[in-house]
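Data availability (excerpt). All sequences and predicted token strings are deposited with the supplementary files. A representative entry, Glyoxal oxidase N-terminal domain-containing protein, is shown inline so that the format can be inspected without opening the archive.
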Amino acid sequence: MLFTLFCTAITALLTTVNSQHVLPGQFELAGRSGVPAMHAALLQNGNVVFLDKLENYTEVKFSNGQYAYSTIYNPYNHELQSLSVASNAFCCAGAFLADGTLMTMGGNGPLTWLDDSIADGFDALRYLPNQDKRTSWVEYPGVKMSSKR
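Structure token line:
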């Protein structure tokens, strides 16, 4: 049901943005997430953030050649911005805080054979601040869940 509500909200947003008429029950491809969309959230500014697990087949890479595991999609101009993530977010939960910050909790273990720069996410807390110029999820050293998920 949440996915349906999300798709309905995105369809309404894209209809407004593109000034096109979309018939009820119909979807139109407007852009690409750049990463598999394991998690998606509509941000207050109308952009959509996508967060994926650690894997080796995303469309978006950083300048150093490493795969991106999170992106922000702007439905107004169809721009895609990659975000760095410090820990494996597979199977994490998420919620918005009162100030608009998106927080995700938990995740999965590291897959060092795939990407040794991504840490254990089982007890991770990740924050995406409510601001326009973000380039990464924030994880504060020593700030973790009290137990692994």
